[in-house]
Amino acid sequence: MNTINSSPNSPYSDSYQPHLLLMKIVLIIFIAFELSCSGTTSSANSQESDHTRAIFVFGDSLVDVGNNNYVPLTIGKCDYFPYGIDFPGSISPTGRFTNGRTVVDIIGEELGLEYYIPPYLAPTTVGDVVLRGVNYASGGAGILNDTGAFLGGRISMDAQLDNFADTRNYIISNADVGGSLTSPNTFSKTLLQRALYIVVMGSNDFIGNYFSPVPSVSAPKPASLEMFVESLISRFREQLTRLYDMDARKIAVANVGPVGCTPLERTLNPLYATGDSCISFVNNAAILFNKKLKSLLMELNSNLVESKFVYADVYSILSHLIDNYQSYGFENYDSPCCKILAGAIQDLLPCSPTSILCGDRSKYVFWDMAHPTDATNVILAKRLLNDDSKDISPMNIRQLYYA
């Protein structure tokens, strides 16, 4: 059963049973090839020839590729133009909260994938499609289950892990001969442990929870920011450990970006904005969380055997880009390309079919009130893929993918 906080029928339900024999054959061939390729990734040439590994994605609207299109009773959707207007080959909106590709789309392209990782809830994400990876991310989602409650339906991190458990169970049930859900055999275990896992979560816990002007009716806020951050880290520890317990070994975790620099936060807090500065108290909260997150990932690497948790410093990359936007080729860093109305209200609302677009979308850092443009995502993805420990540690995503 897939989980949304209330969900439709699972794409791994009994209605797909006629395909199980074919699925077993495909899985066995696929993973046998994976095994034959093991040990061949020590050089650049062997990396290029190595078989594609699966990628599983968890997160919020920054990496949602269309799951919220299928979430009932939510206002957190972008299944209409101009969202997706620059997505390659797109003739209809994709459900991505940007004009083009998300950062994980671009990471997949750069790693040589000839497809985009599909959304879990899409009716076509069934059968052998899941062997290549699945995207579970949902706009409005957070580490805490009550984050984003004002949006209505969304798939929290806990619910995304429930959905991944369904995917894992499906793979094990249809691939392993003599295996079980609690003791999978070599075939599925190899696929799952060689896969890359990307987690982009936490921004909404601040802008859609702690600092949200819309109070949550389901859970009171802690008395202090420090207590709130501790509650996030404690819950995230449990979630990442659960992911590890489901055979994930190579996990890249993005920290929270400079959310105080978004057009949304600048507009919500005009009294705290001085000149060209971002909203410092919001960014300071992200910095506090990020410091504790980095320590958490070091702790998990020490305590969980064969784990490779990678800390992706999105905050530093985007802060440097915003502070030096012209050197990156941008002309605007503090307002959205996609505007609804003139005046400050344009920075508080998502795009609409009647929105006015900027003249050159590649020159804007932000697409709407909170999400980066395709151009910004390209820079972020390439830094995370290829850069050194200044941006991502203890290895970059390309190295993690082939580890």
TrEMBL record:
Q: Which CDD domains does the protein's record reference?
A: SGNH_plant_lipase_like (cd01837)
**GO BP of this protein:** lipid catabolic process
* Keywords (A to Z) from UniProt: Hydrolase, Lipid degradation, Lipid metabolism, Secreted, Signal
Keyword Secreted in the entry? The reply is: yes
**Compartmental location:** Secreted
**MF-aspect GO terms:** hydrolase activity, acting on ester bonds
Q: Which domain of life is it from?
A: Eukaryota
Gene Ontology cellular-component annotations: extracellular region
Q: Which Pfam families match?
A: Lipase_GDSL
- Please report which protein family the annotation says this sequence is part of: Belongs to the 'GDSL' lipolytic enzyme family.
According to UniProt, the name of this protein is GDSL esterase/lipase
What organism is this sequence from? Papaver nudicaule
